[in-house]
């Protein structure tokens, strides 16, 4: 097919790579404009823009698609379909209607659960037992379109936002390639029940409340790992918890109950397995303790 690809972050790159390998003609790639990044705050292209440019694909980075001029430029591409993966801009109706077959989206949840901006993080933080990818035909409303294909993945006690992100990116790429390979792309309405919304992660959600159960604390840590990173403070130093496990033990919530980074919670305890101090890289627990020992009885603030 002659396709327009629309995506911005790393999550979208795998789908673009897969569509190229499948032999589709990528007429143009759309991505969000470069943003200031790094210490020098120089403008940096998105991962999708960088990947596409390195492969000689034409890239457009409009700040909006609302103008008649931008919509006309999009329609002039004469695409069979548009593939949209974490693009980050709303598609007006003239854009949705321009491709011959429509616009198809890779959404990182089992719709209608977790429509919206942060489905990967919200699934883990809420203690869901599974996640997945839905390929849907796009409509004007947010993530409401009919479903073409669904794939499922288990969420385990060791699943983090990063590992689930990577697995769903690969799954979504495969599913989108399967959908576009069909002679006739069929779809079915989303179920009417079970709708939830995955609102954007607020930084205020990242501070760990150890009065919650160990399982809830684990879900918070893993759902926010590695970014923005759930955190607590010890000895005036902010520490991000990146990986942990639920374990036995009790004590005052927020108190280290041994010298192996076990912290009491509202019920049971968690043992920290991977951490990151301010200004340092991520470390396994043993390496962390060599440079920053924490004695039993220490309280996390």
Radius of gyration computed on alpha carbons: 22 Å
Class from helix and strand fractions: alpha/beta
Strand content: 25-35%
Strand line-up across the major sheet: 5-2-1-6-7-9-10
Instruction: Provide a count of the helices.
Output: 8
Unreliable runs = none
Largest sheet: 7 strands, mixed
Q: What integer is the average pLDDT?
A: 96
Global shape: elongated
Helical coverage, percent range: 25-40%
| Extended strand count | 16
- H/E order of the elements? EHEEEHEHEHEEHEEHEHEEEEEH
How many angstroms separate the termini? 56 Å
Question: Summed up, what is this model?
Answer:
Helix content is 26%, strand content 27%. It is of the alpha/beta class and 301 residues long. A 7-stranded mixed β-sheet has the order 5-2-1-6-7-9-10. Strands 12, 13, 14, 15 and 16 form a 5-stranded antiparallel β-sheet that branches.
């Amino acid at each position: 097919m002659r396709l327009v690809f629309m995506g911005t972050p790393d999550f979208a790159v795998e789908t673009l790579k897969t569509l190229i390998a499948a032999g589709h003609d990528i007429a143009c790639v759309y991505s969000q404009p470069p943003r200031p990044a790094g210490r020098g705050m120089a403008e940096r292209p998105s991962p999708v823009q960088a990947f596409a440019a390195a492969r000689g694909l034409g890239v457009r980075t409009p700040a909006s698609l609302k103008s008649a001029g931008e919509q006309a430029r999009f329609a002039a591409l004469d695409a069979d379909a548009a593939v949209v993966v974490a693009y980050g801009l709303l598609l007006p109706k003239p854009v949705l209607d321009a491709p011959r077959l429509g616009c198809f989206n890779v959404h990182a949840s089992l719709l209608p659960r977790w429509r919206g901006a942060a489905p990967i993080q919200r699934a883990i933080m809420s203690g869901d037992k599974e996640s997945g990818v839905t390929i849907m035909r796009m409509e004007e409303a947010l993530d409401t379109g009919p479903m073409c294909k669904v794939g499922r993945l288990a969420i385990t006690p060791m699943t983090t936002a990063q590992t689930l992100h990577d697995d769903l990116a690969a799954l979504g790429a495969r599913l989108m390639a399967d959908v576009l390979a069909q002679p006739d792309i069929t779809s079915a309405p989303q179920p009417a029940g079970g709708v939830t919304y995955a609102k954007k992660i607020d930084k205020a959600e990242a501070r760990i409340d150890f009065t919650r159960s160990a399982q809830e604390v684990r879900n918070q840590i893993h759902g926010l790992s590695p970014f923005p990173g759930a955190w607590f403070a010890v000895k005036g130093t902010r520490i991000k918890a990146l990986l942990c496990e639920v374990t036995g033990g009790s004590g005052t919530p927020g108190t280290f109950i041994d010298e192996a980074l076990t912290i009491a919670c509202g019920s049971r305890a968690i043992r920290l397995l991977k951490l990151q101090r301010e200004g340092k890289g991520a470390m396994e627990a043993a390496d962390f303790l060599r440079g920053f020992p924490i004695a039993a009885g220490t309280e996390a603030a």
